[in-house]
From TrEMBL:
Residues 73-100 form a coiled coil. CDD domains: HTH_XRE (cd00093). The keyword Coiled coil applies. InterPro entries: Cro/C1-type_HTH, Lambda_DNA-bd_dom_sf. The lineage of its organism: Bacteria, Pseudomonadati, Bacteroidota, Flavobacteriia, Flavobacteriales. Residues 17-71 form the HTH cro/C1-type domain. This is Transcriptional regulator with XRE-family HTH domain.
Amino acid sequence: MYKWDIEELKFQIGKLIQLHRLKKNLSQFQLGNELNLSSNHVGRIERAETNPTIENLVKFCNFFEIDMLLLFTKLTDKELKNIESEIEYLQKEFKNKNKTKS
């Protein structure tokens, strides 16, 4: 059994939420509106600055249609690096799409 460090778990959950948000092409503000959360709170969760409640984790999982176990299954360093690379790519795509809208 893996023994979690709280900060490590918060970081992993935040990255996974950020990844799924960007895959749906949503801003933190848009996701917050969908889940009745403030965009600041969504950002703090994504940056691992706060503990998401069980209620909010259920909201995220239901909205993204992902299994709660995904958030709590320990990822390898390589898997986390791949997620961070994908987030970086999706962030650039998201910014480019929003530039062309205005």
